[in-house]
Amino acid sequence: MRKFSLNSIVSLFIFLSISVAHSQPKTHVLMAQLMTENPHAVFQEVVRHPEKYRLQIIYTQIDRDKNNKPSFKNFYFNLDSTFYFNPASIVKLPLALLSLEKINKLEVNGLDKFTSMQFDSAFSGQTKEWKDETSPNGFPSIGHFIKKAFLVSDNDAYNRMYEFVGQQAINRALHAKGYPDTRITHRFVRMTPEENRHTNPVRFIREDGSLLYAQPATYNPDPFDFSRIAKVGEGYMNAKDSLINEPIDFTMRNKLPLEAFQQMLQSVMFPLSVPAKQRFDLTQEDYKFLYQYLSQFPGETNYPKYDGTQYYDSYVKFFFQDSTHHQLPEGVRVFNKVGWAYGFLTDASYVADFKNKVEYMLSATVYVNSDGILNDNKYEYESMGHPFLYQLGQTIYQYELARKRAYRPNLSKFNIRYEKRMNDNRPVVKDVDN
């Protein structure tokens, strides 16, 4: 039985009082207990002031039966789906899934996620993209975009998937899958709301350059529900680098609640564990592809050939990103997607420890912006955000290592044969816009 000090018990009552005093956020007793056990100063500062740091956590225990069938139990800390956080790059996960789903539904003979594609422009703000020198054949493809979006969180990859699927189709599909509170309204470039409603003409081409399939430019006439106001901070820097002394308004920006994000990742890792309508229309080969690039390290990858020093193993693995040690524990792989912008850091992960036969999911978002000014690039990512998420990751990982299970999981489904970096003369890719 776990023993708690007097201070831990007092802290537990403080945490539970937070949950009672505010009827919306959900905090489970187990999470309140676990949050008292890590004495790290940054960790305790954040967990004792969850509203200041806009903190939300979901810890998912996974237990297997004798037939290796998993069951899931979620534990929450300060979870509130109505409490806005900027999702930043985590929206790249649903865009990747919807892109694969769209290709499968097109049912065009010879067209798959590796088929070369090109983007034209047909409306204000749009740009063309006909080549991609980081791919094996020099052309863009959905598969290559997904790699770039997962491995280093490349922004152009997201923009192109947004343009392929289309704003209307993105939102209708996510709402139909049971995520009504999600909202994808824009690319990651400066464009007006009207420009973001328009998406580019796209074509897929054969190896000889001939046209395989053409998709015309599209427009989204559907209205968005902007009734829930989402304002953050005390001020922000505008496009002219002038300080505006009022909160920044995210009401019309992307929205992806943490619980929906966690469910999307679970639907990929364990499709049968979610209702049928929440699953994406993916093939078994799609799932294998996703598992590989959700967990592969940038330095293992040949196309793109990322600089393994700049994009180290834990670069997009926030729960294992230590400032002094950039490698994961032996036998551990993390299948995840992260996002960071405007002082928000977010991660949803499935962790598989093949050495110790341990698995679990952990999702969290935190906001670190002490001066309250957004868009000034003065955020406490390195001094507060990353240390907190690392300590949270270690707290749950150590708890999982000690947690008793009736049956150890068979994790062979997720045991991936990863790439090995080739020795060639191609320059490495650095300084990606992410």
Automatic annotation (TrEMBL):
Residues 77-192 form the Beta-lactamase class A catalytic domain. Coiled coil: none annotated. The keyword Methyltransferase does not apply. Residues 1-23 form the signal peptide. One of its GO terms (molecular function) is hydrolase activity. SUPFAM superfamilies: beta-lactamase/transpeptidase-like (SSF56601). It comes from the Bacteria. It holds the Pfam family Beta-lactamase2. Keywords: Hydrolase, Signal. This is Class A beta-lactamase-related serine hydrolase. It comes from Runella salmonicolor.
